[in-house]
TrEMBL record:
PANTHER family: PTHR43044, QUINOL:CYTOCHROME C OXIDOREDUCTASE QUINONE-BINDING SUBUNIT 2. It comes from Sphingobium naphthae. Keywords: Membrane, Transmembrane, Transmembrane helix. This is Quinol:cytochrome c oxidoreductase quinone-binding subunit 2. The keyword Membrane applies. The chain crosses the membrane at residues 12-32, 38-58, 79-98, 118-135, 147-168, 174-198, 210-235, 255-274, 286-303, 309-333.
Length: 343
């Protein structure tokens, strides 16, 4: 089905292409820092189709007003799975520059197998193919309840695995059983905020907006709990590896911690007010704040030690991929609307 580009979408794609090209051009200066910055932005982009699939699977098993309001928007979000895979090509090609474990000789046969760059790329490929295949089956209404149930079982297991591959393995000292869950709730919260913001700006006021605001509040509560749980597990026992990981985020990164804490905590408190949850204007502003906070948090996870090039690369890549995500969601949503219309 052919969908014509609208002028705002074309402009977003141009801005996105130029910004992404500038981010990759920084590889000429410092490949490791530039590609790590790209990785952080690519993981944030990949959160949209992953979170959209999780939400869409929940809609099939937990029907309600919230699902009817966001169904088409979530279906559009899942269509970004293959573009997200394409954005990981620079990461898979530059894996030797990004990850410190590539410079260490494996100590066991399992390490030699698991840490092979080709197997890393295969695991990444399988994750996105799972997202694409499950979302396609649910959109096509093929055994949706069975597929949705299997998706919600596989999602935390496989999602935790790729979170370890993509982000936790950036630091050889870190070993945390809660890290994957931390990244998953971060990704789903970012995705929900992006999809809700897009739905509010797409046209008519969503049905039962207060329910959607309450769901955003629930996700922020889960995010705050998991953040505290991870900190408690790593820091409070005084384990040297956990202390080292948090110690790398001291200094200038303290500002980032305050930023994403406030950009998540203040919306959480404001969403306790029913008036805020039911206001499209206020809810849209809170979604923007949540999105900004989650992007900063992804930078906080990925970029310590990468210097100015990593930060600039992340900022340019985030602008480029964010513009591409906005254009892609708009195009995908019109495709889903057209597919639903009777012919």
């Amino acid at each position: 089905m052919r969908v014509e580009l609208l002028r705002p979408e074309a402009r977003l794609l141009i801005v996105g292409g130029l910004s992404a090209s500038a981010a990759l051009a920084l590889c000429l200066i410092d490949p490791a820092a530039a590609l790590t910055g790209w990785l952080g932005a690519a993981v944030a982009f990949a959160a949209i189709p992953a979170g959209a699939l999780c939400l869409m699977a929940m809609m099939r098993l937990i029907p309600g007003a919230w699902g009817e309001s966001l169904r088409l928007t979530c279906e559009a979000g899942t269509l970004l799975a293959l573009p997200a895979l394409a954005l990981f090509l620079p990461v898979m090609l530059g894996v030797r520059a990004i990850y410190p474990w590539m410079a260490h000789r494996p100590e066991t046969a399992f390490q030699a197998f698991w840490l092979d760059p080709w197997f890393y790329a295969l695991r990444t490929l399988l994750w996105f193919l799972m997202l694409w295949g499950a979302a396609r089956a649910i959109r096509a209404r093929r055994r949706t309840r069975a597929v949705a149930a299997a998706t919600l079982v596989a999602f935390p297991l496989l999602g935790s695995l790729v979170a370890v591959d993509w982000l936790m393995s950036l630091d050889l000292h870190l070993a945390s059983s809660a890290f994957g869950l931390q990244c998953l709730i971060l990704s789903v919260t970012l995705a929900f905020a992006a999809l809700l913001l897009f739905r509010i700006g797409a046209g008519a006021r969503p049905y039962r907006l207060g329910v959607l605001g309450a769901l955003l509040l629930t996700l922020l509560l889960l995010w705050a709990y998991i953040q505290f749980l991870t900190f408690f597990i790593l820091w409070s026992p005084g384990l040297p590896d956990g202390a080292y990981w948090y110690g790398r985020r001291a200094g200038g990164w303290d500002v980032a911690e305050w930023a994403f804490g406030l950009l998540g905590g203040l919306p959480l408190l404001l969403l306790l007010l029913a008036k805020v949850r039911k206001s499209p204007r206020l809810l849209a502003r809170l979604c923007i704040a949540v999105l900004a906070g989650k992007l900063i948090e992804f930078a906080w996870l990925a970029l310590p030690g990468q210097g100015p090039v990593g930060l600039i690369g992340f900022a340019l890549a985030s602008l480029g991929l964010g513009s591409g995500a906005a254009a892609g969601l708009s195009i995908a949503l019109r495709r889903r609307v057209c597919a639903r219309r009777p012919t």
